[in-house]
Amino acid sequence: MNAKEQPKYSRILLKLSGESLLGDTEHVIDVSKAEELALRVKDVQELGVQVAIVIGAGNIWRGKDGLEHGMERATADYMGMMGTVMNALALMDAMERHSMIVRVQSAMEMRQVAEPYIRRRAIRHLEKGRVVIFAGGTGNPFFSTDTAAALRAIEINAQVLIKATKVDGVYDSDPKHNPNATRFERLSYMETINRRLEVMDSTAISLCMDNNLPILVLNLWNKSDLRKAVLGETVGTLVAAG
């Protein structure tokens, strides 16, 4: 680490989508993508930043597909929560192959492959320099992994929730379809909710607002953006008070 590179945040929670593990292969988990994610995380951890992760399962299962065919919502959600455990294990394995120490904690009990979620134990792992991956959502149906990310970030006293996406921030419309879309550098929580901007779901944003936890939306695939973010450089879109 360069002597001048002092991180702005000492503890972060990184929210990853399941789609971040999709690549060009026919498989739902691309091992090369997992390795790429691992290296992004290692880069910031080597700055002295404690890193916790919540990952989704959109690459494996989307509950809305089941709902469209009459599946019970709770069943669809439990299937999604189990999918997050698979993704967490794939990410853990990739990180361990790059000499990182990782613990997976699941809100759904799966003792053969993951620790149960215990808040104080998770914080202790972070203090010891281990990456902690939270799987199984909140352990309850009807809540998204966005909400799980907000909840876990608050519980572990993270200083920022970083929402990793494939775009470089939050826009007023879809930049893929509107070349004149405007990117926001900063938004308030209420503005994000009232504009119905697709940052995170309203429950997650409300949790962050009630606990004054900033949300930073950035493009994880821009190689240096995560590093820049933890160093306090202007990257992506910040959702915060005021």
- Helix content class: 25-40%
The CATH architecture designation is: 3-Layer(aba) Sandwich
Q: Provide the residue-averaged pLDDT.
A: 94
The CATH topology turns out to be Carbamate kinase
Q: CATH homologous superfamily - what is it?
A: Acetylglutamate kinase-like
> What ranges have pLDDT less than 50 throughout 5 or more consecutive residues?
none
Quick recap of the structure?
With 242 residues, the protein is α/β, with parallel strands linked by helices.
Provide the descriptors you would attach to this structure in a database record.
single chain, 242 residues, alpha/beta, Carbamate kinase, nine-stranded mixed beta sheet, two-stranded antiparallel sheet, globular
Describe the structure.
The protein has 242 residues and is α/β, with parallel strands linked by helices. The chain has one domain: Carbamate kinase (3-Layer(aba) Sandwich). 35% of the residues lie in helices and 19% in strands. The strands form 2 sheets. A 9-stranded mixed beta sheet has the order 4-3-5-2-1-6-10-11-9, sandwiched between helices. Strands 7-8 form a two-stranded antiparallel ribbon. The longest helix has 24 residues.
Topology (SSEs and partners):
Layout: E1 11-16, H1 31-45, E2 50-55, H2 63-67, H3 73-96, E3 102-106, E4 115-116, H4 119-127, E5 131-135, H5 145-155, E6 160-165, E7 170-171, E8 183-184, E9 186-188, H6 189-194, H7 202-210, E10 215-219, H8 225-230, E11 237-240
Parallel strand pairs: 1-2, 1-6, 2-5, 3-4, 3-5, 6-10, 9-11
Antiparallel strand pairs: 7-8, 10-11
Helix pairs in contact: 1-3, 5-7
